[in-house]
Design goal:
By secondary structure, this protein is mainly alpha-helical. Helix 1 crosses helix 6. The radius of gyration is 19 Å and the shape is elongated.
Length: 266
């Protein structure tokens, strides 16, 4: 086996070991996982049936809301990941890992892999709840598969943003303050209302939001009511932005997080 192949195999094995470590933590503390699954369901039911909304939306609001909530679910829920990273930093666990013959960044990759597994389960739960409340996606199996792919891509990107912010925060008590920085990305989006109902300057900002791009692309895939405001470029090219935004975020924040990990204790 070549040196490169050996290095990749070593890094993959270390990352899988760290992934199993995170899954073992969840098995011992299932309440955190359950809360993460239930919270987006509560938001969907609250906005769909209690608060209402749908300003500027043509057609059934539930058909517009569910894709938006799916995208919002992928953007939110980073607090548990950020807490896990900062707790390991605070307790010196990561320092012990760094002293071991382990591939650089395997701890972070393992954490991200475990989070992606939980995100996939959460996405399946949300799809089931959406179906239960009357959402019927169109486009067939291909559109549904593309929908899941775009949503998980957004999650992967937001996850590395969260990991980097956790590395910057360094301590668990600072996570809540840093987590607030992620909230505007979710709420200043087309998750709950169409840009047509917003002032022009706000609509423009909202349509270029990564969460909005994914939500709009998903709506286009499943034939839900759209969110275009006057046929803007961002709305008409939502699928392109739904891929470009996450790739850009990963390209920026994954190297930053791994680089900061390497500099720990340096």
């Amino acid at each position: 086996m070549s040196a490169l192949g050996s290095a990749v195999t070593w890094a993959a094995a270390d990352s899988w070991t760290m992934t199993r470590r995170e899954l073992a933590h969840w098995a011992r503390q299932p309440a955190q996982v359950v809360v993460g699954l239930v919270f987006p369901v509560m938001l969907l039911l609250m906005f769909g049936y209690l608060i209402g909304g749908g300003r500027g939306v043509d057609g059934a609001y539930i058909d517009y809301l569910v894709p938006g909530m799916l995208a919002l679910t992928m953007a939110f829920g980073l607090e548990s990941t950020m807490l896990a990273v900062t707790q390991d930093l605070d307790k010196g666990v990561i320092d012990r890992f760094r002293a071991m013959p382990m591939a650089d960044g395997a701890v972070l990759v393992g954490r991200s892999a475990a989070d992606m597994l939980q995100s996939a389960v959460g996405l399946a739960v949300m799809l089931a709840v959406g179906y239960a409340v009357g959402w019927r996606p169109g486009g067939g199996a291909g559109a549904l598969a593309a929908t899941v792919g775009l949503l998980l891509l957004l999650r992967f990107a937001m996850l590395w943003v969260g990991i980097h912010l956790a590395m910057v925060a360094g301590r668990p008590e600072l996570v809540q303050a840093v987590q607030i920085l992620v909230w505007p990305v979710g709420f200043l989006s087309t998750a709950f209302a169409a840009p047509a109902s917003m002032p022009g300057w706000l609509a423009a900002a909202v349509e270029w939001n990564p969460v909005s791009a994914t939500a709009t692309a998903v709506r286009d895939l499943v034939g839900a009511p759209g969110s275009a405001a006057g046929g803007s470029w961002a709305a008409e090219h939502a699928a392109l932005l739904a891929v470009a935004w996450p790739l850009l975020l990963v390209a920026v924040f994954l190297p930053l997080a791994v680089g900061r990990f390497r500099r720990l204790g340096g």
